[in-house]
Amino acid sequence: MNWHSMWVVTEGYVQAMLAPEAWAEHHFATVDLGDARRTKRAVKVAAQMTKHPAGSVPQQNDSWGGTKATYRLCDCEDVTFEKISEGHWQRTREEAESHPAPVLFLNDTTQVDFTKHRRAKGLGPIGDGNGQGFLLHSALGIGTGEVPDVLGVMHQSLYCRKPKRKGETRAQRKARKRESQKWPETINAIGAPPEGASWIHVCDREADVFETFDACRGNNTEFIIRASQNRRVALGHGAEEPDDSLLDLSRRLKAVGHKQLKVRSRPHRKPRIAKLRIAFAPVTVFCPRDGSQQLEPVPCWVVRVWEENTPKGEDPIEWVLLTSRRVRNRKDAEKIAEYYSHRWMVEEYHKCLKTGCSVEKSRL
Hints:
Blueprint: E1 5-10, E2 13-18, H1 20-28, H2 36-51, H3 57-60, H4 64-75, H5 81-98, E3 103-113, E4 124-126, E5 131-143, E6 149-159, H6 170-175, H7 182-190, E7 199-203, H8 210-218, E8 222-226, E9 232-235, E10 244-245, H9 246-250, E11 257-263, E12 272-285, E13 298-307, E14 318-323, H10 330-341, H11 344-356, H12 359-362
Parallel strand pairs: 3-7, 7-8
Antiparallel strand pairs: 1-2, 3-5, 4-5, 5-6, 8-14, 9-10, 9-12, 11-12, 12-13, 13-14
């Protein structure tokens, strides 16, 4: 095979790129769609989409026959989201298993909006409940070498929210499958790293559910999760009972150093260089007392990063991070904060799907 490789570097991240035909062959030639001809067509469709990612299906094809063949492929019951994606997931896994540096799996969820397409079936409520579409949950693999490199998507899931049923009780709602289960389900789907490899799941505050910690522990993978709940904790490891609350404890810790962070612009936020302070401590996190299954306490570390002297009119930065990686000193704490700062890359990936690839307009 003729591999025409080039390298693309964006904001300090490097990504190896192939010519469209070679890339499509590499990622989709092994997918099992029940017929070798479908697999061959999937490779061709992928190459055509890569050449013109924002185009419609007719724009991506050079003939009406090719356009119809693409629609037939997408309409086939044996051609599912999971089966099409499996080839790329496997290639990403191979990269992650052989990567010499720790690999971050950046977890995040985005809404795919089909509100304007009212005749579409099988969708669920999104946004304030008046829109319709589905949720896409992704785990994007990033290698943490001297120049971080994008390995690919390790796993994705589609979720449709169920509308609240009239007269449904609180107990009935709790008995339903919870949306928060997407975090441990993704971790379990990715599974354990091979011997000698280090995999770290990096998640925002939505993932702060105890089952996320437990799934990482069960798969021998590590985690960095931004805390949202003032959990029951004890300072140090090995405690049998909680005696403090996470957020309260973390805000009493003394700073051990300073760090600068380039803050990206957001709606209602200007870009700036934020001067941050950093503190850390070992803690034991206890399962909540809410009547759910009682899971074993999790020994981990808390790293707090916060901004002082915030510019007028801006919200101060504060990250309270729980991590299973050992934090012995200031350098270790700064590394945890650095790893968490990469999380925005999965948000950029979802933005690329919507604005760069126009997935909502294609309606496939």
